[in-house]
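Pipeline run #58 for the internal structure catalog. This entry was flagged by the ingest filter as a single-chain record with no existing model, so it goes straight to prediction. Upstream metadata was stripped on purpose; only the residue string is passed forward. Reviewer on rotation: M.T. Logging verbosity set to normal.
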Amino acid sequence: MDLAELTSKVQGALAGGGGFTDTVKFDFGSVGKLFIDGPAGKATNEDKDAKATITVAFEDFLKLAQGALDPTMAFMQGKLKVAGDMGVAMKLQSLFSKLK
């Protein structure tokens, strides 16, 4: 899966009433960005300000989304870094469950 496919899949999860009501940006480094705008129900690759920014390698994000990597372990191991509102990052679990 590439970034465009992931963005489309997240958009589909949001359209299905994901219940995610915040903004979060995933920074995948050279691969790009994924901006999730819960209130608008949109997922884009824009580099906008969000309540939380999560920096993670794209491969690790895919493992997180598939349930192959535990978010807490990834955070503890330094594979995932959160800047901004940690509470927003914690709310992503319901959205992630729709990506499996």
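catalog note: The mean pLDDT is 91.
catalog note: The two ends are 13 Å apart (CA to CA).
status: ready for reviewer M.T.
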